[in-house]
Design brief:
Strand 1, helix 1 and strand 2 form a beta-alpha-beta unit. With 221 residues, the protein is α/β, with parallel strands linked by helices. It has a domain of 152 residues: NAD(P)-binding Rossmann-like Domain (Rossmann fold), CATH 3.40.50.720. It is 39% helix and 24% strand. Helix 1 packs across helix 7 and helix 3 packs across helix 5. The radius of gyration is 16 Å and the shape is globular. The strands form 2 sheets. Strands 3-2-1-4-5-6-10-8 form an 8-stranded mixed β-sheet, with helices on both faces. A two-stranded parallel sheet has the order 7-9. Bound molecules: NADP nicotinamide-adenine-dinucleotide phosphate (NAP). NADP nicotinamide-adenine-dinucleotide phosphate binds next to helix 1, helix 4 and strand 7. This is NAD(P)H-binding protein. Pfam families: NAD_binding_10.
Length: 221
């Protein structure tokens, strides 16, 4: 499988790339700094330099042409304020989806968020803005004819992966490791019968491959 990842140098993106490359899949991705490209190249991953904000859908299409699937796991990461959130978390997935349409790629996995994440806390205005932007990106993607899957992880941590999750159409927001989110994304990529569906995922008791395959055929055909 050939997979292109936007957000490949990030916490989840790096782990998705490593898992795929380790299993012999061909991996590419978008990075903003040449040091990141060199680091990925050393691991057999073909990173392309560019900035999602300034690339046009047509330019992005040329970068992803030839890949079987694309993953969006980029995020403003609390830097740059509302405008950057709008450009990355809000408009980024739509731009990538448009590029995929131009390049003839159907499969797209979007890493999003639980809409009710941290409702029990008093979060600041920027966090609320981020949540709205993430939802807008989901709305835009589900209206496309891409063969999309949206994965909503609960709060991310860097603890070692467990290989186990609690995954389904609606889950209670808790925490999950980036390792387990990456493994879930890879499993979704490997199971094309899981499509046009929003999956919420948090830490849990079920082996990841089993949890993902249980969702096969439940999305809109
Ligand atoms: N943190 C949480 O608890 C949480 C919970 C649920 C969902 N999420 C979502 O899960 C996803 C993955 O999270 P993560 O922790 O892996 O994120 P991360 O480590 O912050 O990685 C995000 C990546 O996006 C890249 N990026 C940002 N702006 C870009 C641009 N203009 N052009 C190209 N690349 C750009 C960054 O590139 P640089 O390396 O150049 O900065 C970075 O590598 C994100 O979409 C996040 O919103 C997070």
């Amino acid at each position: 499988m050939r997979v292109f990842i936007v957000g490949i140098a990030g916490g989840v993106g790096r782990r998705v790339a490593t898992r795929l490359a380790t299993h012999g899949d061909q991996v590419g991705g978008l990075v903003r700094r040449s040091a990141q490209a060199a680091d990925l190249a050393a691991r057999g991953i073909n990173a392309t330099l560019g900035d999602l904000v300034t690339l046009s859908p047509e330019e992005l299409a040329e970068m992803i042409r030839g890949y079987d699937a694309i993953v969006f796991t980029a995020g403003a990461g609390g830097e740059g304020g509302p405008e950057t959130i709008d450009q990355i978390d809000g408009a980024g997935p739509g731009k990538l989806s448009k590029a995929a349409g131009i390049a003839g790629i159907t499969r797209m996995v979007l890493v999003s968020v639980f809409p009710e994440a941290w409702r029990e806390r008093r979060m600041d205005e920027e966090f609320e803005h981020y949540m709205v932007a993430k939802k807008q990106a989901e709305v835009e993607l589900v209206l496309t004819d891409r063969d999309w899957v949206i994965v909503r992880p609960s709060a991310l941590n860097d603890a070692p992966g467990t290989g186990l999750v609690d995954l389904g159409l609606a889950k209670v927001h808790e925490e999950i490791t980036r390792d387990d989110v990456a493994a879930t994304v890879v499993e979704v990529l490997r199971q094309p019968d899981v499509n046009r569906i929003i999956l919420e995922v948090t830490a849990g008791p079920t082996p990841i491959a089993e949890a993902v395959s249980a969702m096969a055929g439940t999305g809109r055909p």
